[in-house]
Specification:
By secondary structure, the protein is of the alpha+beta class. Helices cover 37% and strands 19% of the residues. Bound molecules: flavin-adenine dinucleotide.
Length: 235
Amino acid sequence: MGFSEPKYVGHCAFRGIALYPEGQPFKARVNYIYGRGLRAGFVPISQAKVYWFICFNNPSPGPRTDDPSILKKQALELMRNWPSDLLDVLHNTPDDVVIKTPLVDRWLWPGFSPAASTDNVVVVGDAWHPMTPNLGQGACCALEDSVVLAGKLSAALKDGGESVEAALRAYGEERWARIFMVTARANLVGSLLQWDNPVVCEFRNNIMIPWFVRLAPFLEHTNFECDLLEPVAST
Ligand SMILES: Cc1cc2nc3c(=O)[nH]c(=O)nc-3n(C[C@H](O)[C@H](O)[C@H](O)COP(=O)(O)OP(=O)(O)OC[C@H]3O[C@@H](n4cnc5c(N)ncnc54)[C@H](O)[C@@H]3O)c2cc1C
């Protein structure tokens, strides 16, 4: 459909899920730890499971490695001397659930990027707007796309007035502003979080992050309301 390839942003992520069959010991909150060009986090997702991630700078995405035991070793190597809670989470992760993902995005520049639909073909989610995970919004936006698209299609089919093609165009136009803003913001937040200069990191950790997090607008993107789906009448 004429889209450019997603662009590598200079950092990769390791992710995994730790298993605690006897129950995990953590409070129900997201734990973030910031280093230099390196950050990590973990969050309990059930009584027995803890999700974790590590983001690290790398000039290139590097070779594809599918052997999860190698990935886990690399993740542990990056986290040497980091807090023991985090290391505990990594050690409790089975090798075969560790994955590595080079982080990419695609900015949909107004007036330059192709439309979300061509004829009767339309894209949603990462196929249209891959974004970095720094705001945790990629899957959320894919779901929002689906709701808006379903609403436009259902209106077009119900009224018979608007063509499907026009409904797809209206979907792309409505979603574009939201997507562009979140993609750009996630990219900029990623650059800030991946800084590796020690002085800049001190400033970031002790002044910028506490100040930003206190400001409600920093999280305003999470309060987005898209259309509501109408229930389908049963036949
Ligand atoms: C490190 C990391 C952390 C993230 N954290 C968050 C988060 O906290 N919150 C959040 O909202 N998002 C997060 N995301 C983003 C989220 O994972 C994606 O935005 C989301 O998965 C996109 O969903 P999708 O359905 O559009 O695409 P995908 O999840 O990529 O699904 C596409 C599917 O299509 C399949 N497929 C591809 N080609 C074909 C084909 N030719 N035929 C058949 N099937 C095909 C693929 O195998 C895949 O299963 C994160 C991403 C990363 C990398």
